[in-house]
Design goal:
The chain is about 35% helix and about 25% strand. It is α+β, with helices and mostly antiparallel strands.
C-alpha cells in the first residue's frame, strides 16, 4: 500500500492501523501539502466532522465505530480521515498529534495549524482539537483566551 502513493516525507495512504481499540488513520503527503498551504493562507479554516457508524445499530454487541474527517473549508477536500472505536479526547488528540508529526516532516520541522476549527458539539472532539493544535492547552485556558 505504501508503494501505491509514494511521497518524499510520507508514503502510502493508511498511516496507522490498530485493533485494540480499532483505529485507522489515513492521509497522503499530497493532502498534507494542501493542508499546510491552506493553514498559511488568509483563509486557513478547517472543519472536523464526526459521524457515527450507522451499522452499529444493526450489531448492538459490537463497539461503535466513529468516522472523523478533517475537511478544508474552501474545497471540501479531506486532509485527514480517522476511523476509531474509541471516542475519548486523549485518544483523538493522539490521532491528530500523529497527523501533526507528518505536517512537521512536510513543513521543514514546523507545525502549522488552522486559524479556526469547526466541529460538532462533541466535547471529546473539541477538547482534542484544542489540545492538539494549541500545544496542550486545557479547555479552561482556551475559554479565557477566547
Amino acid at each position: 500500500m505504501q508503494a501505491s502513493t509514494p511521497g518524499v516525507h510520507v508514503s502510502g495512504y493508511i498511516e496507522q492501523l490498530g485493533i485494540h481499540p480499532f483505529h485507522v488513520l489515513f492521509y497522503t503527503e499530497g493532502q498534507i501539502v494542501a493542508y499546510v498551504a491552506q493553514c498559511k493562507s488568509a483563509v486557513g479554516a478547517q472543519s472536523i466532522s464526526t459521524l457515527r457508524d450507522p451499522s452499529s445499530a444493526a450489531f448492538p454487541d459490537k463497539k461503535t465505530t466513529y468516522y472523523y474527517c478533517m475537511l478544508m473549508s474552501d474545497r471540501n477536500l479531506p486532509v485527514l480521515d480517522i476511523l476509531s472505536s474509541c471516542h475519548e479526547a486523549s485518544w483523538i488528540q493522539g490521532m491528530i498529534m500523529s497527523f501533526n508529526s507528518s505536517v512537521r516532516r512536510v513543513n521543514s520541522g514546523r507545525l502549522v495549524t488552522p486559524k479556526y476549527v469547526v466541529t460538532d458539539f462533541s466535547y471529546a472532539l473539541m477538547h482534542a482539537c484544542i489540545q492538539a493544535m494549541n500545544e496542550g492547552m486545557q479547555l479552561a485556558g482556551y475559554l479565557q483566551l477566547t
